[in-house]
Amino acid sequence: MNNAVRAAENVARASYGRLLAILASRSSDIASAEDALSEAFSKALTLWPRDGVPDNPDAWLVRVARNRLIDGQRRNAKLAPEDDMPELIAEPETIVPDKRLHLMLVCAHPAIDPKMHTPLMLQCVMGLDAEQIGQAFLVPKATMAQRLVRAKTKIKANAVPFAIPANDKLSPRLEAVMEAIYGAYSVDWLETGDDLGKEALFLGDVLSAQLPNNAEALGLAALLGFAAARRDARIVDGEFVPLDAQNPALWNEPLIRGAQAMLRRASALGQIGRFQLEAAIQAIHARRIDNELMDWRGATQLYAGLCQLYPTLGAQIGYAVALSHLHGPDAGIAVLDALPKTQVAGLQSYHATRAHFLAEQGKLDDAAKSYETALALTFQPALRVFLQEKQSAIVAQL
Amino acid sequence: MRLAESFYGQTSTRQKSGARGLCVYTFLLYSNPADFADMTPEDWVAQKEVYGAYIGALQQAGVFVDTDWLQGVETATTLSAASGSVKVQDGPFAETKETLGGFFVIDVPDLDAAIEWAGKCPAAQFGKVEIRASAMDSV
Question: What's this protein's family per the entry (chain B) (predicted)?
Answer without folding.
Answer: Belongs to the YciI family.
